[in-house]
Amino acid sequence: MDGKAECWHFSAMEIVPRFFLYGEAGDATDAHFLHIETIPHRSRPHGWHIAPHRHPGLLQLLLAERGGGAAQLDGQERDFAAPALFLLPAGAIHGYSFHPGTDGWVLSIALPWAAELLAEGSLPEAALLLALEPRALAAHRVPQRFAELAEEFAAHRPGRSLALAAQLRLLLVALARLRAERPEGGLAVHPDAQAFARFRALVEQWYREARPMADYERALGLSGKRLAALCHAAAGRTPLQILNARRAAEARRGLRYSTLSVAEIGYGLGFRDPAYFSRFFRRMTGLTPGQARREGRGA
Known about the structure:
Elements: E1 34-38, H1 39-43, E2 49-53, E3 58-66, E4 68-73, E5 76-81, E6 84-88, E7 94-98, E8 103-110, H2 111-118, E9 128-131, H3 134-139, H4 142-155, H5 160-181, H6 191-206, H7 213-220, H8 224-235, H9 239-257, H10 262-268, H11 274-285, H12 289-296
Antiparallel strand pairs: 1-8, 2-7, 3-6, 3-8, 4-5, 4-7, 6-9
């Protein structure tokens, strides 16, 4: 991919390129993958133009601190001027034509980790563009949070994983507070993206219950084939994989931050058989529940 688009518009999801990071093949293998870089680092080599594309499995946040340009988010074109914040769920189709010299940050987070953080209401289910006031941006220290996260990301010091997790949570809290002050900042999105957002909302509502996927299909008014197509287009996963990733993320949180037993955590997520829950957790994370608990406590 050379970063140049034939046009801004697209007529089918299949023609929109999928990337791990823009212009890079591959997929996130680490459930806690995180990457942060400046806007010029990725966009300057492509003539400040990023063609419409998507990242199944990654959630992205882009902060424009200086400059501006035009953005396409799920088929809608929007002009923007800094300071502005883009919040892009996994699979959202997005592209940019930046004014030369535009600066800021691009943060990418693996979907399993994003799902864990979504439980705290810190991130949107649908694409958002927020035009920000410089005073509000400074009051919540958002540019500093991005810069501190980037500095920790690049340093590779002892305790890096814990420090990155802490810095990321501080950044997301700051962004959640900004969003709370700007409830009108939502961006209307493509109907397919809205349907996927409704599915994710149901996952958040029901992931602790042992519901069959047919319940989700009935609640959404979608066939199993249609729901599978939406999930594949938006996140590169099946509906069951998305549900299981959410359950595994919550299980990991319970093991790291609670004193509940493995059986109690599994029961709280709809698993009646502790042995089956342990097998499920290992299949999803590559760790036994005991290993995850020890890892979370630094043992």
